[in-house]
Amino acid sequence: MALLLQPRCAGTHVLARPQSAAAQAQKRYDPGASDSEIKVGHIVPYSGPLSAYGAIGKAIDAYIRKVNEEGGINGRKLNFISLDDGYSPPRTVEQARRLVEQDQVLLIFQTLGTPGNSAIHKYMNQRKVPQIFVATGATRWGDPKNFPWTMGWQPNYQSEARIYAQAIRKAAEIGWKPTHDLNSVSNAAGSVMVPAGAESGIGIISAFYIKDPTDTQWHDTAEYKDWLAFMRRFHPQGDLKDNFNVYSYTVAPSLVEVLRKCGDNLTRENVMRQAASLDLTLPMLLPGVNIKTGPDDFYPIEREQLARWDGKTWVLFGKVLGRSPGARRYAPATEGIPAEPEGCFRRRG
Fold first, then answer.
1. Threshold 0.85, pTM exceeds
2. Which domains does the chain have, with CATH numbers?
3. Contact 137, 157 (CB under 8 A)
4. Hey, CA dihedral for 140, 82, 207, 188, is it positive or negative?
């Protein structure tokens, strides 16, 4: 059954300046956009074996309610239509068709998982509907030449593997023994590490690009306090230990920035044009991690920092690795190597 998450407003009034007939004529809309709203589609498993990822959809909905309460985007409210696919590709196809053909959304945002996104990849590009900031790290989402309507968001798995390889290679060169390694999509302290047995995970290495809400070094910062205030006001039922809620708080403003940059040209083509011209940092990204795209660069985040699980929380170490902030090249392999890695290397997740 589909779960519809519609925005709720708190009576916020937006004062609009009078516009000339020429200014009005400059407005351009595709299906899903108007003077008053922007329809955004979203697909995530609220049911089934991966229903824990439904937390992302709920937190994004909370962020969109925040945006709407503050006046929306350029005076327009966001109509967020979030549907459940149970992490089943056939259902993903069904829900995507519903969003595009019946609900007539301007774009589909943050569909979760490689199988589901793969199932609708050609359909979205044939229909020329943005499939934007997909929630999967497969490299296929960064192919603007062949699939110009699809863009990733999180670090792709190949880039993350390169970061791990840098550390492993340097460890081998100086005689260190590699350690256990856990990929970033499986490193949540609250929903993975603690339930799996906090003590048994001591020494595991993972990579991060957003701030871990259980890491106390952030708790006195303005950025964390703003996130906490957001959670308490707009998403009080959300788990403060779950980094899905930090993830959602970070990916949602990425979309908001794209739509803000679109101005009154809310065509699907312009959505992709603005998505491919981002250069920004966001409060809950790690220091040194940025979002940068270009017409031939559909990989928004390509920098991460390694961390080691100490039995209670993730402890960051070394420098941020990956693409340099202003260019698509990778940091030297000598950066970010753990001080005392132990055990044997084994890929997990």
1. no
2. 21-348 (3.40.50.2300)
3. yes
4. negative
